[in-house]
Amino acid sequence: MITTLAMLVKEGEPLWAVMTSGTVLQKATFEKLAKKVRHLYQQYGCSEAGCLSLGTGLLAANDQGKPLPHIAIAAGTNAGEPADIVVTLPDGRTVETRDLGYFIGDRLHFVSRIDEMINVAGFNVYPGEVEEVVLAMPGIRDAVVFKRSRGFGGEQVCLHFVSEETIPAEVVREFCAGRLATHQIPMNIARVEAIPRLPNGKISRKALAEAPPAPSLTF
Prior knowledge:
The chain is of the alpha+beta class. The chain contains five helices and 13 strands. The strands form three sheets. The chain has an eight-stranded mixed beta sheet with strand order 1-2-3-4-8-7-6-5, covered by helices on one side. Strands 11-12-13 form a three-stranded mixed beta sheet.
């Protein structure tokens, strides 16, 4: 729904406010929406502890804003070294969110769910970073990155994408090669009719990983 709003609303007639929660907007959607709304908010939280931070004046799609004043949040100290986001509640209870994040100043930034991170020969690959590059490729309308086991240990970066025209896998890899590290480049690539989403709009990378490999469209 937010993606549709970003397309239909005119910059000269912006919406008053939009708040997102539950998942990080794609970079292109975030940048388009930011031009068409006066106030863009982002809320971050977890089911065990409720709302944890509220982002106003957002600077990036993964910017979750400042932690609420009644809680304490620990995470990584820079983008290159994200760490588990751990919350301490007012009653002293500690909640491990199973998310990776980092702080820039006093603002929390989300990176990935820990169980969605892909380990390629000892290097960590975060799906959102790869998706951001793939979605910048001309002709690609939607994309999702997830992991599959390679056997003998280790994991493989897998990509499903949606496009109007056929785009060979090697062309996608070549585009990624100039923008990503070698271990981030998708090896298993399929062009599909649509990316399946849950009723709440989220994508289940776990379900994709466990499903039989999708045949790539050729038309």
